Amino acid sequence: MDDLLVGCPASLRSAFTSSMQSATAAYSSQLANCASSESGSESEKPSVSESSSDSNDQASTCSSSELQKRSTGCIQKMTAAAAGGDTCGAWQTYECCLKEAFSSCGSDMQSQISTMMSTMKTQYNTILPGLANCASATCSSGSGPSPTPAEVETTLMASIELSDPLAFSLEKYVEAVKKATGVAQLPEAVVKAFEIIVKYMLPDATDIATARAAIAKANGVAEDRVQVAQSGSRRLGAGRRLASNVDVTITVTDKEKAVAVQTSAANTTALGSELGGAVSVTKAPVTTAKVETKVKSAPSAASQLASQIESAGSDVGGTIKAEVQTAAPQTSSNGASSHFSFVLAAAVVCVRAAF
């Protein structure tokens, strides 16, 4: 196990070591009993008559090798749930997957898994803040219908390209999202802004500050509501010279102003006058509504929400692009979700060691 963690960050190795020490302490008495039964007298050992085919079958089902086999599938389920950005929901998916896989092993195994996962939540809280506060999952007992899993809330940002901003209805959008996702509760949605995006050909050697000021004045908005970028590259800093072909984004707060700016942005007369040269539109202005959307769903369904919301475009009257807003900051180049999966993968090794 030390070899497995050689390439891991020091913080993860430290947390893993702490978890192993806690696990060793928690199960030291049981390990000692195992050792004594191996070396004890014949009277302490079970007789052949005490054995049965049922106990042999259970030993196979509840073995360490079976735990390792099942853990791989549970990690996959956890990773899918983690895509929604909900740490507790993903952890509970993993916890239930293990518990339900070994429900036939009896209460002792279930109790050991619960104890082990409780210890790990505390130890790994330094790497995944908030993990220790996650409630224990309510899982199926293995008989009868499974209970409805606890819902998790996923926050997504939907960018809706609108052909007619005035026709956009937030209420209609909410209903469309509910229909597309199949959730029982109405999603929560807030319009954060309307963005008008247009491409211009500006006079040669126009600097960024002059371009921004002229575009803001021509469209009746504050300069801090205008972003100017060389077409196909990052936004330039103040004072830099522009290539003549630029991307412009103008941000406003309501759809009425969005319509007015979309109209004024298409008229180059005022902008050309401000810049003292010819200006042409190379791509007509398009308005996009930025809508923060919160959806409650089963953990297993969280990873599908973005594509489901995007499918609702025809019901809203525009083209939708949606992405999950991750609450936790990224802690590595692979992002928070992959880091979360990596930490839990190490935790699985800890679970296997306990058994």
Low-confidence stretches: 35-52, 142-147, 233-239, 328-337, 348-355
| Strands, count | 6
Structural class by helix and strand composition: alpha+beta
Number of domains: 2
List keywords for this structure.
355 residues; six-stranded antiparallel β-sheet; elongated; alpha+beta
Structure description:
By secondary structure, the protein is an alpha+beta fold. It has two domains: 10-41 and 54-129 and 332-354, no CATH class; 153-324, no CATH class. It contains 13 helices and six strands. A six-stranded antiparallel sheet has the order 3-4-2-5-1-6. Helix 1 packs parallel to helix 13 and helix 8 (208-219) runs antiparallel to helix 10. Residues 35-52, 142-147, 233-239, 328-337 and 348-355 have low confidence and may be disordered.
What's a quick, concise take on this entry?
This protein has 355 residues and is of the alpha+beta class. It contains 13 helices and six strands.
